Amino acid sequence: MRLAELSERSGVSTATIKYYLREGLLPPGRQVNATTAEYEEEHLRRLRLVRALIQVGRIPVATAKEVLGHVDDESLGRTMRLGAALWALPQPPEPAEDDAAVTAARREVDRLLAEVRWDSVRELGDLSPVHRSLVTTVATLIRLGYDWNAEELVPYARLMREVAARDLDFLETHESDAEKAEMAVAAAVLFEPVLRALHRLAQEEESARRYGIV
Amino acid sequence: MRLAELSERSGVSTATIKYYLREGLLPPGRQVNATTAEYEEEHLRRLRLVRALIQVGRIPVATAKEVLGHVDDESLGRTMRLGAALWALPQPPEPAEDDAAVTAARREVDRLLAEVRWDSVRELGDLSPVHRSLVTTVATLIRLGYDWNAEELVPYARLMREVAARDLDFLETHESDAEKAEMAVAAAVLFEPVLRALHRLAQEEESARRYGIV
DNA sequence: CACATCGGATAGTGCCGCTAACCAACGCGT
DNA sequence: ACGCGTTGGTTAGCGGCACTATCCGATGTG
């Protein structure tokens, strides 16, 4: 298909598609001649994924490019691709001011990880961007005056562990041979909005039950 | 305290504080005379909350204003304040293209809510922004080619229900009289990054256990 | 062979979250 | 009483980001 058809079938304007091509989010089509390029179904699928990452996952274009770079990195095995792609996903900005709150937060997070015995991530520690962002967020909560401690997070951690186990089960079940890595990224990025929405819906439901009003 | 001190103790530049005052995110200080205004501890706390909403929660300034407006709305009771504030929290943009994917998504979400018996939110249906955003996100997943169905979401929904119950327990325990509504909003907004981080950490941990590599 | 269409390149737009610069009023030390 | 540094408010501008409008020469098409 040509660019115009790609645009029509995806609902993305040709100008935007050109922008994505320019930014390297979308691999170039097969150049037929100087004025015509041919795109495949694969391009359409990739374009939908890009839109999902950017619109639903709210991932910056530059980051999306990086993530997709890992997805396309054939030098990595399946697991590594997934890991590298997830690693590249954006985290809350780290003010990195090493004050008392951050110290306290780090201590509590460490205690939490010890308590639930997540030894793999404990070994990685600050190397993992996710770990750092968790510390930062907890530090913010502490600064706001929450008397935060690891014990209160333990049940949440256990629940999220269950969720993560289901995530991986899901991936294993649904992976087709064709686009394994893309699926993994899509699942990682698009599951979060689903979880977030379910979380808020659950809050509405629970609140309505307890207090009668929403 | 004066603006300069408010700036120093919060780590936010005076220019930015002035900006927040202008935008109505921060109530004006007590005007002593034409060139001096006096701010209280309350302003410091509110300022920290604003920063948390914007930086950690990534909430747009205009939305944060709206949310805080509900928090300050004394015509509402506690529960209503919380509800209104949560209601105003931003959702993924809704393309609102009522195509086959959206229809299918709506059907699956309805089935899900029936299955887990969240009758309160079911009654509200499309009225709730959260409900709409869930439908939109699921529609995106469907468009990407996931053969999505309600059954697969059920365990997630149950888990998030447990999480939500804990959220509300937490609120009930920790609420001090002084800043109930602010705490509720902070919890709602700042809990999500914590959950997200725990989720990803759990994925790393689980993946490391299953496949040995992260 | 006229003409619409194609894809690529470039420069511009609109929004958003600040931020630098300015200003008159004030308060404090001498 | 007076000079001068500081205060809080106002205005205009900046930088980044995600597009987007426009132009262009090459090309396929009736």
From TrEMBL, chains A, B:
The keyword Cell membrane is annotated on this UniProt entry: no
InterPro entries for this protein: DNA-bd_dom_put_sf (IPR009061), MerR-type_HTH_dom (IPR000551), MerR_fam (IPR047057)
One Pfam family, short name: MerR_1
Membrane-spanning parts: none
HTH merR-type domain ranges (all copies): 1-70
Keywords per UniProt: DNA-binding
DNA-binding found in the keyword field: yes
GO MF term set: DNA binding; DNA-binding transcription factor activity
Listed name of the protein: MerR family transcriptional regulator
Record organism: Streptomyces griseoaurantiacus M045
Lineage, opening ranks: Bacteria, Bacillati, Actinomycetota, Actinomycetes, Kitasatosporales
